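Q: what sequence does this backbone want?
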């Protein structure tokens, strides 16, 4: 059931098994499900742009949410990454605010 419906999670499969009269705990179902090999971010980029409709550039933050699998998938789709500028320090933010208030 998990192979034919790879997007179904343990709760959904547990519910379907209960409808079929199979009594098994949801925890048991979740342990028996195969682990996803592709991180969700890498798979999302492929699902979002099927049939070579991907944009030329991807603008993203400098956070570490995106792993190597995501970057590898993006480069494989020939999408250029453009990183946003690094965030300024709190001291720099205060300095700019004080400077702006002093100029007014």
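A:
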């Amino acid at each position: 059931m998990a192979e034919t419906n790879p997007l179904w999670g343990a709760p959904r499969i547990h519910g379907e098994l209960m409808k079929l009269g199979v009594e098994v705990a949801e925890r048991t179902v979740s342990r028996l499900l195969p682990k996803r090999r592709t991180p969700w971010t890498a798979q999302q980029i492929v699902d979002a742009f099927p049939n070579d409709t991907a944009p030329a550039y991807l603008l993203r933050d400098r956070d570490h949410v995106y792993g190597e699998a995501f970057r590898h998938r993006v480069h494989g789709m020939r999408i250029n990454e453009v990183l946003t500028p690094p965030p300024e320090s709190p001291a720099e933010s205060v300095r700019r605010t004080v400077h702006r208030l002093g100029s007014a």
